[in-house]
Amino acid sequence: MTPVYAFIILVACTLLIRIVKGPLYTLPAMGLDMCKRNWWTNLLYINNFYPVEQSEICLTWSWYLAVDFQCYLISPFFILLLYRKRALGVSCIAALITASLILTGVLSAKYGLPVTVFGSPSKNTTDASADYIYTKPWTRISPFLLGMLLGYAFSSMRSRQVPINRGVVLMAWLLSTALMLSVVFGLYSHYQMPQVAQNESMKAFYNACHRFAWTLGVAWVVFACETGNGGLAAELLSWPGWKPASKVSYTVYLLHPALILVYMSSRPVTLHYDDWMLIYLYLGIALFSYLLCALVYLSIELPLARLPHALSIKSNTAVEKEEQPV
């Protein structure tokens, strides 16, 4: 993960910032310029804490990698606890999930944080929601912990095939779909009527629960598909055609925002947004991102991933030659 990450940072702070210098130059605002100064915080996976100012972060969208790494660091403790004392481990994880949800809601209510990271606080503070809840591990850890519990459940099963009553399966699918749709469309009035003041309690509740609610929905999809209750969803998600795209998905995540910034910054005039224009932009940038990232995967990520295996084979071959009698 880190070598490709470092390569993308190198490209950002050497090549991308020199490609365009047009009237709509927006690279400094999204952290490409800052890669020359603060690249090391990304490689140490602390860029969601330092720099403090969001405008000084290298590759502002890479905060997720820092959060994921920080959650990963504490995961051995909970995994060991689950295997040694299952009830205590599950209780500790459930307590930590509850504490994370409560803390997120309290911070949201205290600072009047918006329900999107792009909004402005409604109370007397100049800090954005990213400073308090959007990029911090203590407000992001609940989905990670739920995934850990699901993984532990799978590892504890004697058989992955779990027969469940069709009525129960149908109800679970409906609840899962309802949860995820409520997360997506729960902000409908917020976007349609931004001039109307939003209820602070509802904003705090949404900020606290929407990520965990979405994760619950996804967790059922994973559980159902893995235990033979996925039906058409399992067939669709297990289609072999997804494998090539999955190989480069990580690199696409890292690089495609930078490509969007390069395109937007190179335009001589602003865009007039409409549905067809967005469709063309989406398809063009998606195709270009996957093609470019396929080259990065083949030239950087894949050789580095296979290097330890190649060195191991070479070492074993050398040992075998030394042990052969003369």
Pick out its properties.
326 residues; mainly alpha; 11 helices; globular
How does this model look, in words?
- By secondary structure, the chain is mostly helical.
- It is 70% helix and 0% strand.
- It is built from eleven helices and no strands.
- The chain has helices at 2-19, 35-43, 63-84, 86-111, 137-156, 166-185, 188-192, 200-226, 232-237, 242-266, 275-323.
- The protein is globular, with a radius of gyration of 23 Å.
Task: Give the helices and strands, then pairings.
Elements: H1 2-19, H2 35-43, H3 63-84, H4 86-111, H5 137-156, H6 166-185, H7 188-192, H8 200-226, H9 232-237, H10 242-266, H11 275-323
Summarize the structure.
It contains 11 helices and no strands. By secondary structure, it is an all-alpha fold.
Mean pLDDT: 85
Instruction: List the uncertain runs.
Output: none
Number of helices: 11
Strand content: under 5%
Shape designation: globular
Give the N-terminus to C-terminus distance in angstroms.
44 Å
Helix/strand order, N-terminal first? HHHHHHHHHHH
Characterize the largest beta sheet: strand count, sense, and whether it forms a barrel. none
The radius of gyration computed from the alpha-carbon positions, rounded to a whole number of angstroms, is 23 Å
